[in-house]
Design a protein that fits this description.
The protein is an all-alpha fold. It has two domains: about 90 residues, Endonuclease Iii, domain 2 (Orthogonal Bundle), CATH 1.10.1670; about 100 residues, Endonuclease III, domain 1 (Orthogonal Bundle), CATH 1.10.340.30. Helices cover about 60% and strands about 0% of the residues. It is built from twelve helices and no strands. Helix 2 crosses helix 12. The longest helix has 22 residues. The protein is globular, with a radius of gyration of 19 Å.
Length: about 220
């Protein structure tokens, strides 16, 4: 009897994939229809699946989009070429001058060390299940569940990945589900079960819906 193989994960690569996910989700979830009617199709949100994509996620943590863009620009200027060995060779002073905090510097060095010495990202996880990718990433010091989930969604394009620890997703879910308080990661994971196997599309829509709500509040305030 031949060995069982794990089905290849559905990958989001184009806007057409997003539309396919939205169509499927609209058919089975009134809250998806509510969000989509307000926000429209969400953006693709894809990044480079290697070191650059992972480093961008780390740099963008807990800062505004504008700040993340500025810091990344300085970081990319300081790290040429964008390779693990270049990050390891850079001084802490140079990385701090780019705007990186000490924890982010430690995380980027840990990622680079894992790439050089442990083969992290060597095959870009093309055929690995989501859980295996998540486990491999979170073994690296400084990479938590949120970073791993965002990498699965935005860098690998996994259609059913979901960053339940993301505060904007939690707040968007609170609004659209009319909850008394923002759900924590465990509760949001339970809620998101209804959106399988397109949870990453649902997440993109939640982000777009949250932005649309905030924009509307800004216009009417």
């Amino acid at each position: 009897m031949p060995p069982r193989t794990t089905p290849r994960a559905r990958i989001i690569t184009t806007e057409s994939d997003i539309r396919d996910g939205i169509k499927a989700l609209r058919r089975k979830c009134a809250h998806i229809r509510q969000m989509h009617d307000l926000a429209g199709d969400p953006p693709l949100r894809r990044r480079e699946p290697g070191l650059e994509g992972l480093a961008r996620i780390v740099v963008s943590q807990q800062v505004s989009v504008a700040s993340a863009t500025a810091i990344w620009g300085r970081f990319a200027d300081a790290i040429r070429p964008m390779e693990a060995t270049t990050i390891l060779a850079a001084s802490d002073e140079a990385l701090r001058a780019a705007g990186l905090s000490r924890p982010k510097i430690r995380t980027l060095r840990a990622i680079s060390h894992a790439i050089v010495h442990d083969g992290l990202l060597a095959d870009r996880f093309d055929d690995a299940p989501d859980d295996a990718v998540h486990e491999a990433l979170t073994r690296v010091s400084g990479i938590g569940p949120w970073t791993a989930d965002i990498f699965l969604m935005s860098c690998l394009g996994r259609a059913d990945a979901f960053a339940a620890g993301d505060l904007a997703l939690q707040e968007a879910a609170r609004i659209v589900l009319d909850l008394d308080q923002r759900p924590n990661a465990a509760t949001l994971l339970e809620i998101a079960e209804r959106w399988r196997p397109w949870r990453a599309v649902a997440a993109r829509l939640l982000w777009s819906y949250y932005k649309a709500i905030k924009d509307r509040e800004g216009i009417t305030s």
